[in-house]
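Progress note, sequence design subtask.
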């Protein structure tokens, strides 16, 4: 082995010597000036773009995107060698202009949107026109012209080469092929090198494609743009086949659906302001937990006890997590089977709550102090009908007021109050969504959450028979413990928000809706540790211990419930102040709330919980489902009787059919844009009727 290494070392040294002696580098540069100019100008443009957009030195000189850009340019450039020398310049110039244009467009776009461009935006023609005007008027800056220097440099080099009769050289076909292959294999090697530097986070973000800054930072602008084209085309390809069948099934599905049913809650909140709070990763099982005499979520617990509290409520998210919960909340549709609706299908027609509220004369808005393109919200909010989106750009975010992903919830709420006050003064009635951020996985910014003692304190009798108190860390330092601390912080923030809103008179005529967007994605192992922790020894019970009781998968699935609360200041003690224990899903919110606010979506998938009551079924994107009595695991084909009662196979079959039809119709509505198609069909029908 040692001998082999020495041999290899000597070989490399002699190769370097040969390269030096024969001036091979110099010769290579001389023979490949055009190709090298092309590679260098394109990589330089991409680097300059990162410099102008993301600013920090770490970002614009980062190794990964430079390696990515170089490898792509070497691959593209290698094919130039297939052409005769006199035709090569045209090839390189074409690509140099193309790549410089990509940089320029993104540079302009970034100034305007603090994000990178996407070809999927082209489908929003109306949106693009406004952007276009604004670009010409306000955004085009001198710095955006710098990218032209790339093609200009190439032209200058070309003119010089022409003078030196560089292009007169004759190259036979086989020689050209050889040069192409050599360069291509270097390019492939560089691509491989780049791929091995990627982390799993890089890969997963690349697949999702919505965290555009991150992708440009790791993959460079050119790979970002290529991936963007691919992900933008994917939904178009998906919707190419199967339209007729989809439309037929859709019409059949809704054929026998009942019309709007009224009940005693119809219009009870008509014309009231509505404030919706998206409580990040908030689970309902926190409400009944306390440590050393302190509740984890005292404020939420109080709010729930004063309002309408739906304690058997599930979120129905897929890989789109927060964005999926917003989709289902707003449209009563399920997340798509592939991709995410917010990213891949944002340009579809949706029957969405904000649109209905607009129609009812409300001013609609969203507040979320994160990057506006996170989950492609900026675009999707247009489709859902929100009139205004207050994002990171509208908040003062500093290092001091940041926790975890961004602006802390306490600060977010504090800075939002004056904004809501202004909205309230200017508008007759308003409907707003506030999206919280701090209580987000991995819950690791623990020092910033504030004090919350998770240790266990127990009195034991020691060997001498004397009673003594022992303290063990229990959940301190564990992921579940960190989640509890983080949720405690979020609850405090909510408490402060309610106080501030009240002091500003903003609760007097307002309905507050709180929903947990999804569970905290904490592993079952963590709950098992908590459930089987022996406070007398400070260790987890052994599996063999008679007192050990596994926290099983069904406990885990049923424990993923999130809160859903409807609250008004004067509800306490009235007949609206109640706990609803019937199983309910996020897709039931639109029907239930719509009935109270005065709108109805005939293509909703869920139900008004006050109509369906105990007959409800909550279907999950993976085909699992839950009723008041059964949790069904579709992957395993197993079920669990929640009340221990016998379950008929017939019921399981019936619910499985229901779940698969519902998921299919929901997916088709989005993928094939069926609501738009239906509207078009109806218009044609109306016009032909008017004509006859
Ligand atoms: C991001 C926030 C979190 O802005 O809403 O999204 P999530 O990771 O929960 O989907
Ligand atoms: Mn979330």
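Output:
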């Amino acid at each position: 082995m040692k001998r082999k290494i020495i041999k290899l070392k000597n070989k490399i040294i002699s190769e370097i010597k040969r390269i030096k002696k024969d001036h091979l580098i110099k010769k290579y540069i001389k023979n490949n000036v055009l190709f090298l100019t092309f590679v260098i100008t394109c990589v330089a443009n991409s680097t300059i773009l990162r410099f102008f957009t993301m600013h920090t030195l770490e970002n614009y000189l980062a190794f990964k995107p430079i390696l990515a850009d170089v490898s792509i340019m070497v691959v593209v450039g290698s094919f130039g060698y297939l052409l005769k020398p006199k035709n090569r310049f045209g090839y390189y110039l074409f690509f140099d202009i193309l790549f410089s244009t990509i940089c320029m467009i993104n540079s302009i776009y970034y100034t305007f949107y603090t994000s990178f461009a996407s070809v999927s935006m082209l489908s929003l023609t109306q949106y693009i026109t406004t952007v276009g005007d604004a670009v010409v008027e306000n955004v085009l800056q001198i710095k955006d012209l710098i990218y032209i220097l790339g093609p200009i440099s190439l032209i200058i080099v070309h003119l010089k080469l022409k003078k030196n009769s560089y292009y007169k050289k004759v190259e036979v076909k086989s020689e050209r092929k050889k040069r192409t292959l050599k360069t291509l294999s270097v390019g492939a090697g560089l691509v491989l090198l780049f791929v091995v530097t990627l982390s799993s986070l890089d890969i997963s973000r690349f697949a999702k494609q919505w965290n555009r800054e991150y992708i440009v930072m790791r993959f460079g602008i050119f790979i970002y743009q290529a991936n963007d084209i691919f992900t933008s085309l994917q939904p178009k390809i998906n919707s190419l086949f199967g339209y007729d069948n989809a439309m037929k099934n859709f019409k059949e599905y809704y054929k026998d659906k009942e019309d709007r049913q009224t009940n005693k809650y119809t219009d009870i909140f008509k014309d009231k302001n509505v404030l919706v709070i998206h409580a990040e990763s908030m689970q309902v099982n926190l409400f009944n937990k306390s440590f050393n005499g302190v509740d984890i979520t005292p404020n939420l617990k109080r709010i729930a006890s004063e309002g309408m509290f739906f304690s058997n409520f599930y979120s129905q998210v897929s890989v789109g997590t927060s964005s999926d919960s917003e989709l289902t909340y707003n449209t009563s549709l399920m997340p798509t089977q592939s991709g995410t609706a917010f990213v891949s299908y944002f340009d579809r027609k949706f029957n969405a709550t904000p649109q209905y509220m607009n129609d009812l004369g409300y001013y609609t808005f969203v507040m979320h102090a994160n990057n506006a393109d996170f989950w492609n919200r900026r675009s999707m909010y247009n489709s859902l009908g929100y009139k205004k989106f207050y994002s990171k750009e509208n908040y003062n975010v500093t290092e001091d007021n940041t926790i975890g992903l961004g602006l802390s919830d306490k600060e977010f709420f504090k800075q939002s109050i004056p904004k809501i006050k202004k909205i309230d003064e200017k508008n007759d009635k308003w409907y707003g969504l506030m999206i919280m951020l701090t209580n987000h996985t991995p819950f690791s910014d623990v020092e910033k959450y504030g004090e919350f003692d998770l240790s266990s304190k127990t009195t034991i009798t020691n060997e001498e028979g004397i009673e003594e108190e022992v303290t063990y860390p229990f959940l301190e330092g564990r992921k579940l413990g960190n989640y509890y601390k983080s949720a405690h912080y979020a609850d405090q923030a909510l408490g402060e928000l309610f106080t501030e809103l009240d002091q500003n008179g903003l609760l007097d005529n307002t309905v507050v809706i709180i929903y947990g967007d999804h569970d905290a994605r904490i592993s079952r192992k963590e709950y098992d540790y908590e459930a089987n922790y022996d406070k007398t020894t400070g260790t987890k019970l052994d599996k063999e211990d008679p007192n050990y009781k596994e926290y099983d998968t069904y406990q885990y699935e049923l424990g993923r419930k999130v809160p859903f609360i409807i609250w008004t200041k004067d509800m306490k003690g009235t007949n609206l102040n109640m706990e609803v224990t019937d199983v309910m899903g996020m897709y039931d919110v639109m029907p239930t709330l719509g009935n109270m606010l005065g709108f109805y979506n005939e293509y909703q998938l869920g139900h008004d919980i006050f109509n369906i009551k105990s007959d409800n079924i909550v279907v999950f994107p993976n085909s699992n489902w839950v009723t008041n009595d059964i949790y069904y695991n579709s992957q395993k084909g197993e079920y669990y009787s929640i009340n221990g009662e016998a379950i008929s196979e017939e019921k399981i079959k019936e619910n499985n059919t229901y779940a698969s039809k519902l998921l299919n119709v929901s997916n088709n509505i989005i993928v094939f844009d069926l609501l738009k198609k239906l509207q078009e069909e109806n218009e044609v029908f109306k016009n032909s009727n008017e004509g006859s």
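Residues 125 and 414 are 37 Å apart (CA to CA). Work on this subtask will continue into the next period as scheduled.
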